[in-house]
Amino acid sequence: VGHVVLAINGAEVNGRFTADGKDVLEFLGNPANYPVSIRFGRHRLSSNEKLMLASMFHSLFAIGSQLSPEVGSSGIEMLETDTFKLHCFQTLTGIKFVVLADPRQAGIDSLLRKIYEIYSDFALKNPFYSLEMPIRCELFDQNLKLALEVAEKAGPFGPGS
């Protein structure tokens, strides 16, 4: 069972204090701190957990493409549950981009294509990037964060629904 994470103005809350040591009740009691952005979410996965899940998904993807009654199936494009949808976009070179989203979230297909564009522009064109290695590029991180914020602001029934 995963833990629920609370964040106030981007700072993760642990008990009564934020990650940067501020008292939550004092912070909320100060009118100068408003408006306040409060978000609930899951805890962040470690690198090992991400690798384990990616490996597991890759295996399911391969099995799905082999078991599909559709000749030449490309594998799992979307897996839907009551609480989330897993969307997968596989490039012609076999790289997979996976997004977990709220089941009501719209525009995930365009988000996946935007992520591929960002990957192409800021990772593949980077002479210091090696394929199949973690991407360590500030411009990639900034543009990915911006794309995710735009998708989040579009809301559950935004463009493309």
TrEMBL record:
Gene Ontology biological-process entries: endoplasmic reticulum to Golgi vesicle-mediated transport
Location of the protein in the cell: Endoplasmic reticulum; Golgi apparatus, cis-Golgi network; Golgi apparatus membrane; Postsynaptic cell membrane
Gene Ontology CC, one term: TRAPP complex
Task performed by this protein: Core component of the TRAPP complexes which has a function of guanine nucleotide exchange factor activity for Rab1 GTPase. Plays a role in vesicular transport from endoplasmic reticulum to Golgi and autophagy. May play a role in dendrite postsynaptic membrane trafficking.
Family to which this protein belongs: Belongs to the TRAPP small subunits family. TRAPPC4 subfamily.
UniProt key word Cell membrane: yes
Assembly description: Part of the multisubunit transport protein particle (TRAPP) complex. Component of the multisubunit TRAPP (transport protein particle) complex, which includes at least TRAPPC2, TRAPPC2L, TRAPPC3, TRAPPC3L, TRAPPC4, TRAPPC5, TRAPPC8, TRAPPC9, TRAPPC10, TRAPPC11 and TRAPPC12. Interacts with SDC2.
Alphabetical list of InterPro entries matching this protein: Longin-like_dom_sf (IPR011012), TRAPPC (IPR007233)
Alphabetically ordered keywords of this record: Cell membrane, Endoplasmic reticulum, ER-Golgi transport, Golgi apparatus, Membrane, Postsynaptic cell membrane, Synapse, Transport
Main localization (coarse): endoplasmic reticulum
High-level lineage: Eukaryota, Metazoa, Chordata, Craniata, Vertebrata
Name of the molecule in the record: Trafficking protein particle complex subunit
